[in-house]
Amino acid sequence: MSFLGADPAHGIQERRQSVAIHAGLPGRRRSTVGSLLVNTESLKERQQKAKEARDVRKSLLQPHHKFLMQMVAQHLALDYSVLEDFVLDAERQVTLITDFCVKDGSRSVKFYYQEAMIPLLEECGRTISGAGKGAVAPRVLVTSGTGERLRGICVYFLRTKSDIALTSKNIYDEVTFGVLDASDPTGILTAFECVMSSLYQPCLSALETWGELDNDPHGRKSRSTFMDSYENFVSFLGHAQANSGECVRLASNTSEKINLQEIKTAQDCIQAAANPDIVSDVEELATVWCKQIEQILAESDQMRKEADDTGPMAELDHWRQLMARFNALLEQIKSHNCRMVINIINISKSKVLKVLYYL
Fold it and tell me: Which PANTHER family does the record match to this protein (predicted)?
């Protein structure tokens, strides 16, 4: 009786709701497919815009811009078309070259040839073989020198004055260039010292006339003082490279149980200190560090054997060497990995900490 007495309108409303629910399911699938289509179209639009922007950048290259790029390509043994593709990969790179050439622009521009991230099509406007997330390959990067760290070869251009714009006619007289090779295992100091001693020093020494400096005794004294300072600076570069090569490098973490780069907070240190295996590995690493530091301190206390004709420069070189070694050691102690090791053994109340603090 209750079924017969049910409200017909209520039943109709329930059926409508049921139909609406079942009808909504395909609708959601259509919405998901539609979202994917929108994302695909958006990616294609970004790629197309990147290609158009690349064409615009190429149209901005002037003959004097191309002259600089040809110099770089020639020295790096690259085809000009390959180098141009590298330059056109980013708007900032074309901007840096343009700013170097305009009146009152920058006085230097650098081209780095080294391993770098490969940009995607929607970023650079061209398809590069091997491109993918995190992929790297040898590339040419245009920089002001304040961003990307130099790890390879640097071809640099300099202007002594920027009160005129560079053109195809005056660029030969207004611009000088040079090369630094930081890929050499001896480091950037050796490369810089080589340029200063092999290129600029002979040119300065061969210079016979110094303009107004030759007209009076004070000018000639200034010239002599400058040359002496220059020679001392070149000598200092050579000693600095030699001293840095003798610096002791603290042992690296080889434990598979912990990645010190992933330890960043106090809570991370507490969790690591609660694991006996991790603490054991960290203590072993800290013990190796203690032995290395003890060796450095022992060598610094040793008496030096000096010849009878030893002068003040030898004494100065000795203290420079000690300073370089201790500064390098101090920088390593202040590094992230070393601080995290100290935090972990401190929380675990390890006895190794007392030895490390004593040193």
Answer: AAA+ ATPASE DOMAIN-CONTAINING PROTEIN (PTHR46532:SF4), MALE FERTILITY FACTOR KL5 (PTHR46532)
Q: Where are the beta strands (DSSP E) in the chain?
A: 108-117, 136-143, 153-159, 175-181
Instruction: Output the CA angle 138-143-144, nearest 5 degrees.
Output: 155
- Measured CA to CA, the distance from residue 85 to residue 137 in angstroms comes to 14
Asked whether the beta carbons of 102 and 165 are under 8 A apart, the reply is yes
One-letter amino acid for residue 25 of the chain: L
As a whole number, mean pLDDT of residues 239-246 equals: 65
Q: How many residues does the chain have?
A: 359
Q: Which residue shows structure tokens 């030898």? A: 314
- Sorting pLDDT into bands at 50, 70 and 90, what band is 154? very high
Instruction: Supply the DSSP string of 256-284, one letter for each residue.
Output: SS--GGG--SHHHHHHHHT-HHHHHHHHH
Query: Which neighbouring-strand residues pair with 157?
Result: 109, 177
- The pLDDT confidence band at residue 359, using thresholds 50, 70 and 90, is low
Task: Count other Cβ atoms within 10 Å, centred on residue 328.
Answer: 18
